[in-house]
């Protein structure tokens, strides 16, 4: 039995480059995102805006600190600096692949890959994102969507 992955959509107030400048998308890269339990996730990061400076998986004690009850299946927290945010979501313990896409207009999607049968144990994962300009974290809107685009939760 296989489950189609969920899609997380974040629409946010990211200060984009000034008008008239050319946006240069970055080459996709893959980071390893551990979970509290289960498998690590190879998360492909695709930045179509050219505004992402860095994406780092939250690990160790910092990951343990985010493993608290969330108000929903996803949370967005302001980072230490105005240009940083932390995405925290709950996946299944056996999800091993995913894709985080930053696209215009100011949208981030996180989609888990398919996986084989496993226990339906929630697995907290977190990524810190650093952008070129300030991000209004409190204004971020997040949704967890199924692959058909229907809201889940």
In short:
With 153 residues, this protein is mainly β. 5% of the residues lie in helices and 42% in strands. The chain has one domain (7-12, 27-39, 49-145).
Question: What structural keywords apply?
Answer:
disordered N terminus; mainly beta; 153 residues; disordered C terminus; 5% helix
Textual characterization of the structure:
It is a single chain. The chain is mainly beta and 153 residues long. The chain has one domain (7-12, 27-39, 49-145). Helices cover 5% and strands 42% of the residues. The protein has one helix at 60-66; strands at residues 7-11, 29-33, 41-47, 52-57, 74-78, 84-92, 97-103, 107-112, 122-131, 141-145. The protein has a six-stranded mixed sheet with strand order 2-3-7-8-1-10, with no helix packed on it. Strands 4-9-6-5 form a four-stranded antiparallel sheet, with no helix packed on it. Strand 7 (97-103) and strand 8 (107-112) form a beta hairpin. The longest helix has 7 residues, at 60-66. The two termini are 21 Å apart.
Secondary structure layout plus pairing:
Elements lengths: L6 E5 L17 E5 L7 E7 L4 E6 L2 H7 L7 E5 L5 E9 L4 E7 L3 E6 L9 E10 L9 E5 L8
Parallel strand pairs: 3-7
Antiparallel strand pairs: 1-8, 1-10, 2-3, 4-9, 5-6, 6-9, 7-8
Please count the helical segments: 1
Strand segment tally = 10
Secondary structure category: mainly beta
Oligomer description: single chain
Shape annotation: globular
Proportion of strand residues? 35-45%
């Amino acid at each position: 039995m296989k489950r189609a992955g969920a899609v997380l959509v974040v629409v946010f107030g990211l200060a984009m480059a000034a008008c008239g400048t050319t946006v240069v998308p970055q080459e996709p890269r893959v980071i390893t995102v551990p979970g509290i339990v289960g498998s690590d996730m190879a998360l492909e990061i695709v930045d179509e805006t050219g505004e992402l400076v860095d994406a780092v998986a939250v690990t160790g004690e910092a990951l343990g600190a985010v493993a608290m009850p969330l108000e929903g299946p996803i949370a967005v927290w302001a980072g230490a600096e105005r240009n940083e945010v932390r995405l925290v979501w709950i996946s299944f313990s056996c999800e091993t692949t995913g894709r985080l896409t930053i696209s215009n207009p100011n949208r981030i999607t996180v989609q888990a890959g398919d996986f084989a049968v496993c226990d339906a144990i929630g697995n907290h994962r977190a990524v810190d994102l650093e952008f070129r300009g300030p991000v209004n974290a409190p204004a971020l809107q997040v949704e967890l969507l199924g692959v058909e685009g229907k809201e889940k939760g």
